[in-house]
Specification:
gamma-tubulin binding, mainly alpha, single chain, about 250 residues, 2 strands, Centrosomal protein of 70 kDa
């Protein structure tokens, strides 16, 4: 027993021991003679050992709390191998704390995540803009908007190339250019119709169309009757067949 107490006393007196753990008793000291003849006091040892035991138990509780905190803050970290050990070292606790601090520092450096109220405001604004009634509909509507935006971007790019416009030209310029092009086409069509009908007067065009409506049905009926009478199918064969009959 004396050897054990002497060994404990030497640990308490060691420079590695915390300075507040070993305190020489202020009262009468009960001395004992070690094998080497040196004196030692043991009255402080039970309190010190009890304090150490309490601290070791507290380390386990602290380790469990730190593990819970780590799972909340950095859940992607795998469990450390000390989880299944009976004893817990200060180094284990320091490892968990360092991992949490490192993750927090990296987030502060690399992430510009806005606060939750700002994120809620952004989602709410998106719902109002694109008429989304529930949070479940936000992602589908986002995909729909992204698809439509891609289609419109491709259309505008193709129109810029076809109309030989600069890529920076706004949509209003594209619309105006398309409108002017349609006007030019309509004017050309009108001129071609006028040249085809041989008139520059719209009333003359109407008269010719009315004459066509009066003439064409009887003419078409006559041709059909000749085809049936001559027993032929092609209108080009009418004249040769009539010549043969003469």
């Amino acid at each position: 027993v004396l050897k054990v107490l002497s060994h404990i006393d030497s640990i308490l007196r060691s420079p590695r021991a915390p300075p507040l753990i070993y305190r020489r008793s202020k009262g009468p000291v009960q001395n004992c003679i070690k094998e080497n003849g040196q004196e030692c006091g043991f009255e402080h040892l039970p309190l010190t050992v009890e304090m150490w035991a309490d601290q070791l138990m507290a380390l386990k509780d602290l380790h469990r709390s730190l593990r819970k905190l780590s799972l909340e803050l950095v859940p992607w970290h795998t469990a450390d191998p000390q989880d299944n050990r009976e004893s817990v070292r200060v180094e284990d606790l320091q490892f968990i704390v360092d991992a949490i601090l490192e993750e927090i520092e990296n987030k502060e450096k690399n992430s510009q995540t806005p606060p939750l109220p700002t994120l809620f405001a952004i989602v709410s604004h998106f719902q109002k803009l694109f008429d989304v009634n529930s949070l479940n509909g936000v992602y589908p509507r986002m995909n729909e908007v992204y698809t439509k935006l891609g289609e419109m971007t491709n259309v505008m790019r193709n129109l810029h190339e076809l109309l030989e416009l600069d890529s920076s030209a706004p949509p209003t310029v594209v619309v105006d250019t398309v409108g002017k092009l349609c006007d030019i086409i309509n004017e050309n069509v009108t001129e071609q119709v006028q040249q085809l009908l041989g008139t520059q007067d719209i009333h003359s065009i109407i008269d010719k169309l009315e004459e066509h409506e009066c003439f064409f049905p009887p003419f078409q009926a006559l041709i059909q009757d000749l085809l049936c009478l001559l027993e032929i199918r092609n209108p080009d064969d009418i004249l040769p067949t009539v010549r043969n009959l003469k």
